[in-house]
């Protein structure tokens, strides 16, 4: 789910109802595998690559990408997590989850930072993440990997690695995990 | 949460939420550039009618790390010296448009009174002998950092409880989070009544020390010595000071805390203050992150959770 959608799901609101399955667990695994190859190809190997999963949905995908990169190339890239709550432009509209841990294990100066998220929607989370990354140093480059690109961008942001391009309506909702990708909507519980 | 006036009345969930939020700001403080834009465009001002070093500075550091604008204001060089009333001063500040006022005043209840005159948030940074809530929060956070949690801890609060707003806020916070609190002081330095305080009382420090996880020393307020509440500072140190030999009575893991400023040689021996088990500088460091959490909770997170 993109961050804007997550706001309306538990523990804060309605329940996600899946309408159709877009990818199953095997499809997701294959897409992660392909993206890992693309990251290596694009950067001529794993040197200086740092993976950063965006809390909360991107963290498991960043871990899966790190696993895949390790299997392909033998070296496991540094892996971090980032909660962009304090950098968002809609701060105050969304509760901060103290459980969403930020952990950047290395100095990012001179590194190739690959931001990893589950669903790319408006692009506002990524805007906040670009802002946040600069408080940890000056990377050589920042790239973006997402499991699902569902369109409806509100900012000039595009991903470098995409698991699945999925045309959606604005009021639909995408739930992406390692178990699969579903398209559906949120049913308000109140 | 709109204001932070005291710990009394806060539920365990509220306190734990603020401590959890503090974790996030400790992480921010460790960044190469320890600043986030969370409170951009918000204004925080200070109204300190009493002296302060660490509280004032750490609130200012907290506000700046959240990118809030800060309006500095010194009571001693302001129109207050021309006889301006508290209410007029507050309404002047309010008219300039501030989102939060951090107040310290010698009289209990002043922050509460100010909430009736302003539309923004009010944070109590110490009112008379009443409360000092952010101190209690940073104390809780420091204990959690060193001892893993507060539930079930045995804590001795030693010294001038009577004049201490820190002791009041701490007693509420520690017990609300599940600790057992024992106040250790001569009868003259205890409040006239402890009705409603969920604490035990002792006058024998040596008997209490072996049984506690935390020794919390209060500042001996020398300016109150004219009231002859203790025979002399030396006598106080002999019975209630944490001397080097008393430290040996403590459990190996027990920690020593002090809200500062310390009177070395009075309530705490000079060499005890520098032992590894003394976490006074951690308290100061955590003060910034705790106050970031408070400012963010009141101004940034939209109130509801």
What would a concise description of this structure say?
Chain A is α/β, with parallel strands linked by helices and 190 residues long. Chain A is built from four helices and eight strands, in the order H-E-H-E-H-E-E-H-E-E-E-E.
Outline the structure in words.
The complex is a heterodimer of chains A (190) and B (305). Chain A is an alpha/beta fold. Chain A has helices spanning 3-6, 25-42, 58-73, 124-133, and strands at residues 15-24, 49-54, 79-82, 112-120, 141-149, 161-165, 173-177, 180-187. In chain A, the strands form two sheets. Chain A has a five-stranded parallel β-sheet with strand order 3-2-4-5-6, sandwiched between helices. A three-stranded antiparallel β-sheet of chain A has the order 1-8-7. The mean pLDDT of chain A is 90. With 305 residues, chain B is an alpha/beta fold. Chain B folds into two domains: 12-132 and 284-299, Rossmann fold, CATH 3.40.50; 133-280, Rossmann fold (3-Layer(aba) Sandwich), CATH 3.40.50. Chain B has a five-stranded parallel β-sheet, covered by helices on one side. In chain B, strand 5, helix 6 (165-176) and strand 6 form a beta-alpha-beta unit. In chain B, helix 5 crosses helix 6 and helix 5 crosses helix 11. Chain B is globular. Chain B starts with 11 loop residues before the first helix and ends in a 6-residue tail after the last helix. The chains are: A alpha/beta (190), B alpha/beta (305).
